[in-house]
Amino acid sequence: MGVTYIKNIKGLTGLSDPQKPLRGAQLNDVQEAGDAWLLIQNDRIHAYGKMSAPPSGMPEPDEVVDAAGRFVLPAWCDSHTHLVFAASREAEFVDKIKGLSYADIAAKGGGILNSARRLQQTTEDELFDLAWQRLQELMQLGTGAIEIKSGYGLSLEAELKMLRVIRRIKEKAPIPVKATFLGAHAYPEKYREDHEGYIRLLLEEMLPAVAAEGLADYIDVFCEKGFFSYGDTIRICEAGAKYGLKAKIHANQLNLSGGVQAGVKTGAVSVDHLETMDDETINLLASSDTIGTLLPTAAFFLRMAYQPARQLIDAGCAVALASDFNPGSSPSGNMNFVVALSCMQMKMLPAEAINAATINGAFAMESQTEVGSLTPGKRANLIITRPMPSLEYFPYAFGTNLVEKVMLSGNFIRQ
Q1: What integer pLDDT is reported at residue 415 of this predicted model?
Q2: What's the pTM value of the predicted model, to 2 decimals?
Q3: At CB < 8 A and 24+ separation, what contacts does 58-64 make?
């Protein structure tokens, strides 16, 4: 760290510092400056301006980067991941190709229960090493803030083990990390016919233990047919709120599950997935402060209908983008592809997708004062692209890795 001066920037983007998540027409404005410079001091954005008016009184820089022909963007803020898992599930990938559905695979003991069995057999140190390596790869791709969920434990011991791994990642990582307790991800085999028994375990044993160790920032519930109902979701989220855990809900992935309604009722920070929406639900979300987080790579991998991003944005919903990185339905945390896919398959404009994956993603994990834009005072987490003709070229050339350099907390980790 020290002083880094980035000069001759073709396009400096993400300069605004909104007080609320961007909505509607605001989402299509990346606040771009052309022919610009950016000054970093230690781990913070210090100042920016036009090359025609270079910084005055600038201390001697330790590093000068010539960004001619390049764009500088805020690093991605990935607000929905399941980064801690024990093993991949490519056998289920083959099952999907053969025609089995998500529900079919879950019914025969695959899916979340498969990951839970493997995780319960894996040590905390092994889980940490695996997750840490995944995070290194994601940071190289430009991720500068991340939320990580538990939910592959489904027992008191295993859920605590996952959350302790996330805490270790949080303590070591050069980026903001948020932890979410997702004990309500599925019903373990033992409780297949005793849903109420598992919910009592969640509320009476898991949640107090999680809170006692301060292991989570949020609580999450998979509100879906065959998993946790609208009423279950309200009950679990309200219990979490008593321990200071705000809600972030898996909502409306497979059905009109009531997840959005539960999220709005409990004041959830975000409701995530939203593949299945109707006009009434869209309008309810638009009238609330809850963010709709879209996970297009899950729809891509599962060959499902994509989230109705255009309708959500046009209705005035606050929309974020995240990767849903997990071994079963989105085995990729590449936010560059998330942004491109959002444009190609959800009809988001490039600027909308970039804002949704940066500043609105930051709001979706309440890290907007630290990351999400290139505002002076915020953490110096940014991407320098390869030379590009325009910002729109970034999602257009989706098969090319256009990330040339990544800076996290003032240090280049990729250059």
Answers
A1: 62
A2: 0.96
A3: 58/3, 58/5, 59/3, 60/3, 61/2, 61/3, 61/4, 61/5, 62/2, 62/3, 62/4, 63/2, 63/3, 63/4, 63/5, 64/4, 64/5, 64/6, 64/7
